[in-house]
UniProtKB/TrEMBL annotation:
This is Uroplakin 3A. Residues 1-19 form the signal peptide. Residues 248-269 are annotated as: Disordered. GO terms for cellular component: plasma membrane. Keywords: Membrane, Signal, Transmembrane, Transmembrane helix. The chain crosses the membrane at residues 208-234. GO terms for biological process: urea transport; water transport. InterPro entries: Uroplakin-3. It comes from Amazona collaria (yellow-billed parrot).
């Protein structure tokens, strides 16, 4: 087992707490936002779960199995005479008829956890999370690729409850050495139809309300500026018309006085 400070550190990070219950755990929300989604579930990898089953000079791998919760009434076995089941997503109808193999990866190294400095480095955070988290349902192409030979991890069904299990395989002998319990029930999100999406402001998030308010104020200011510019142009045109009328009237008066023999109209006012 890893040292106590390693366990403490990663329990604080939400990585190793799964080992206490020996079953797959959903990743903490601050490590995987919007988890689960409509078609994916992000799990913590089995860190330090299988340490007591590991032996030197042996090679190991971890299998991840998934199934719909309703399938547990049919079969939840993933071992056949110490051999792991090779059932696929297609054969089990996406986990409706029993567990299917969703992933295979190396046993996480409990003795060399990531450095805390790497966790805080935004440039390294993605690689660190990939090393310690696994996203079920992340491959949208394997079902339709005739040349795909690996383990297919296609999208999960929306609004469906799943359970997951990790299995430790001795790849040297090809037999199962250990396994976790089935995870707690984890349900993917429901897809909302466009007609059912609630647009009532009272149910919007605080951020949406703030953004809407700002846009409303900007629209008001834009409209006010437009009206002010129109008003200014209208006033300028009106003033120009009045000036032209005055000049025209003055010219007519001068012409009339001259025709009557008055050289200086001001003397006869």
């Amino acid at each position: 087992m890893c040292s106590s400070w390693v366990v403490f550190t990663f329990c604080c990070l939400g990585q190793l707490c799964a080992g206490k219950s020996l079953k797959p755990q959903i990743a903490a929300s601050w490590l995987a936002a919007n988890n689960p989604t409509h078609t994916t579930v992000t799990l913590q990898k089995p860190f330090c779960m299988f340490d007591s089953s590991l032996h030197p000079n042996k090679s190991y791998a971890v299998y991840l199995y998934a199934m719909e919760e309703s399938a547990s009434a049919i079969s939840s076995l993933v071992i056949n005479s110490s051999k792991p089941l090779d059932s696929t997503f297609q054969q089990t109808r996406g986990g409706q008829l029993g567990p299917y193999k969703a992933a295979l990866f190396n046993v996480p190294n409990c003795a060399s956890p990531p450095r805390l400095a790497d966790v805080g480095d935004i440039n390294k955070l993605s690689d660190v999370l990939k090393q310690y988290l696994f996203r079920v349902g992340d491959d949208g192409n394997c079902l339709y690729d005739p040349n795909f030979l690996g383990i297919c991890n296609p999208p999960l069904a929306p609004d469906t409850t799943y359970r997951f299990k990790y299995l430790l395989l001795d790849t040297t002998e090809g037999i199962v050495k250990d396994q976790t319990l089935w995870s707690d029930a984890i349900k993917t999100r429901r897809v909302k139809l466009p007609l059912k999406i609630d647009t009532w402001p009272g149910r919007r998030s605080g951020d949406m309300i703030v953004i809407t308010s700002i846009l409303s104020v900007l629209m008001f200011l834009l409209l006010a500026g437009f009206l002010a510019s129109v008003s200014s142009v209208w006033k300028a045109k009106t003033a120009l018309k009045i000036t032209k009328k005055k000049k025209k009237s003055k010219k007519k008066k001068i012409y009339k006085n001259k025709s009557m023999g008055l050289s200086d109209p001001k003397l006869f006012q």
